[in-house]
């Protein structure tokens, strides 16, 4: 969705706020609101942004291990799951002749601030090892750390089994088990003397919390996401889906005023909080895992809806988001307001209980009321107003109108016919005003200036024109493009100018201002690529959908199946690899949900839980071979589907009340 917006720090110039420290090489563990950022070697040195964080505050910035008076030799650092990582190192004590290490060191670090340091002896005789851990912290907020304004290390005090640091507003404690033989507060040092017999291992556990006792609770939210699984001819599908589900779950935060409601935070480390548009899109793409996340996110945003009379009545507030050099920033509140009725309409089809739908319906109607008043005299929606009429904004508005009408009709509310008529009018105006005719078949303008002049950039945002949404009975909603224009757009999205080989570019290569690292001017954004894959698949453009899906899966493999929110869009060549963006969030909610969206698009699941039906329209050709998806949720019950190598779909598990049809 959006690029990694810098943390806000009062008094710091905007230009400086945009200079985020690079984190693309970091090993990040997250279980919101807990976060650990480690270098690949695993030693927290007290420099840069590395550290253990909770709710945006750094509890520990330095955690340096020494064995036998020196630092172990780092061998490998890797993620084990969304919330934990392992760092492997070795030590050569000299007890044995030759160059081989004789002590193995494994550090398993958890997002909740727990670290287990295990030393294993490979020597043929007993060995006595002095072990030291140097600790320190500044208790600085993440925003200040990112802006290069971290404070000096604080002086530690001795805790019963470790060390403690405090300021007037915060404190942190690191406790050790077994307790250290010696603790030097002035040096931030814990010491042990460990005796290891041949082949023996010993473990030291460190627990860093905000309190003097107890373990920092991670995963405070009851996870509403089903534990979906994939298996098939391409084993990477299983790894991608598993990692995507884990990462999305690790980003869940609860509404502090309504702890029963959870939402997906935008991403780590820079945006570990509510971002209305991203949180809604992530919930929408995760609907195959159940409707719980969508319902909670919708409730949270409904509580923020503007109630004061005026032009913003019914709007869901949201910040501006950068749109690159060619357009001014767009308002994410506009996007979230338009997404609200669409997400509610689709969640109902996936099986959201009718009482929850009824509770949220008035907020959806207020969103539609806002849209009615926000449409300009030309019939298009400016974002922000006054400003450009963006291509994707019209797609969002049209989807809200069509799906909103379907929702109103299904719930016996007035206004459905009005919104169908408004949607039809928007389709007619869009095809006349946004389509730029050319000898190559034409293209959609990326935006119309306020005076009506088109901006003829080809951007990844055009993928939203193919994301029409789902109606009752397994029908796809009509789109802003007719069939010939949709075919032309599919050709454009599948051509090398837009398809980097690793996913969809946010701007075509030959457009003025193209930058392979530009978040809106060239970089691949995982969310937009998944939207394109699903939209192309639904519209029947098999070749283009399969090409983008294959590239995105290859990129996911290169990133350890944890896709960043964006990465550089250099053209893929033999032997090349996708290049990270140094400021991208990883994990990010929409990037994690993109893996779920892209893989479930292969099955073409189109439920209508209120009507008791589910349709399957798999992508022809089975680009990943045979594939089985299990652990999904339709109508609140387990759902499993198998796609054969011929591209034929079969439901293997479903609620008793569901009938295959549509």
TrEMBL record:
InterPro entries given in the database record: 6-hairpin_glycosidase_sf, 6hp_glycosidase-like_sf, GDE_N_bis
UniProt xrefs under Pfam families: GDE_N_bis (PF14742)
Top-level taxon: Bacteria
Domain Putative glycogen debranching enzyme N-terminal residues, every copy: 32-207
Protein name: Amylo-alpha-1,6-glucosidase
């Amino acid at each position: 969705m959006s690029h990694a917006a810098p943390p806000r720090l009062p008094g710091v110039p905007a230009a400086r706020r945009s200079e985020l420290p690079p984190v693309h090489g970091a090993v990040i563990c997250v279980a919101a609101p807990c976060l650990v950022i480690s270098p690949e070697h695993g030693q927290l040195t007290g420099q840069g942004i590395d550290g253990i964080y909770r709710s945006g505050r750094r509890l520990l910035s330095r955690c340096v291990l020494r064995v036998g008076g020196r630092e172990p030799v780092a061998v490998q650092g890797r993620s084990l799951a969304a919330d934990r990582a392992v760092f492997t190192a070795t030590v050569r004590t000299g007890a044995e002749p030759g160059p081989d290490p004789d002590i193995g060191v494994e550090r398993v670090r958890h997002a909740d601030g727990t670290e287990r340091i295990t030393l294993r002896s490979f020597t043929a005789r007993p060995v006595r090892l002095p072990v030291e851990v140097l600790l320190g912290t500044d208790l600085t907020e993440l925003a200040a750390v990112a802006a290069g304004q971290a404070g000096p290390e604080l002086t530690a005090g001795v805790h019963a089994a470790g060390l403690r640091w405090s300021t007037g507003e915060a404190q942190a404690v690191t406790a050790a088990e077994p307790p250290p033989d010696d603790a030097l507060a002035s040096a931030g040092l814990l010491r042990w003397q460990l005796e290891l017999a041949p082949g023996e291992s010993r473990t030291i556990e460190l627990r860093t919390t905000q309190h003097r006792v107890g373990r920092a609770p991670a995963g405070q939210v009851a996870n509403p996401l089903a534990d979906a699984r994939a298996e098939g001819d391409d084993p990477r599908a299983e790894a991608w889906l598993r990692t995507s589900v884990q990462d999305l779950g690790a980003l869940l935060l609860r509404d502090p005023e309504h702890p029963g409601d959870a939402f997906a935070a935008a991403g780590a480390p820079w945006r570990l909080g509510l971002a209305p548009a991203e949180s809604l899109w992530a919930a929408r793409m995760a609907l195959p895992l159940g409707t719980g996340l969508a319902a909670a996110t919708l409730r949270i945003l409904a509580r923020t809806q503007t109630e004061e009379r005026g032009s913003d009545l019914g709007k869901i507030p949201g910040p501006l988001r950068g749109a690159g050099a060619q357009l001014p920033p767009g308002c994410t509140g506009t996007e979230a307001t338009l997404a609200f009725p669409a997400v509610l309409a689709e969640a109902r089809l996936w099986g959201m209980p009718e009482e929850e739908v009824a509770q949220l319906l008035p907020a959806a109607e207020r969103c539609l009321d806002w849209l009615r008043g926000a449409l300009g005299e030309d019939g298009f929606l400016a974002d922000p107003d006054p400003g450009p009429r963006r291509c994707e904004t019209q797609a969002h508005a049209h989807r809200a109108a069509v799906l909103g009408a379907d929702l109103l009709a299904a719930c016996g509310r007035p206004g459905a016919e009005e919104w169908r008529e408004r949607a039809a009018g928007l389709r007619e105006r869009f095809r006349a005003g946004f389509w730029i005719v050319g000898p190559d078949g034409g293209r959609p303008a990326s935006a119309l200036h306020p005076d009506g002049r088109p901006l003829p950039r080809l951007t990844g945002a055009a993928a939203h024109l193919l994301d029409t949404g789902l109606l009752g009975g397994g029908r796809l909603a009509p789109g802003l493009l007719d069939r010939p224009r949709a075919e032309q757009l599919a050709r454009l999205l599948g051509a090398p100018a837009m398809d980097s080989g690793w996913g969809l570019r946010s701007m075509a290569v030959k457009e003025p201002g193209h930058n392979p690292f530009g978040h809106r001017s060239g970089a691949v954004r995982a969310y937009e690529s998944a939207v394109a894959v699903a939209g192309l698949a639904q519209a029947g453009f098999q070749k283009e959908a399969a090409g983008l899906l294959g590239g995105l899966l290859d990129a996911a493999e290169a990133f350890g199946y944890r896709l960043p929110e964006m990465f550089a869009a250099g053209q893929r060549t033999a032997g090349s690899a996708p290049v990270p963006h140094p400021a991208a969030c990883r994990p990010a909610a929409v990037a994690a949900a993109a893996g779920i969206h892209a893989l479930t698009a292969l099955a073409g699941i189109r439920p209508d839980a209120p009507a008791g039906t589910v349709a399957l329209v798999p992508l022809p050709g089975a680009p990943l071979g045979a594939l089985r998806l299990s652990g999904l949720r339709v109508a609140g019950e387990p759902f499993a589907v198998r796609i054969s190598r011929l591209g034929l779909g079969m439901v293997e598990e479903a609620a008793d009340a569901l009938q295959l049809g549509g």
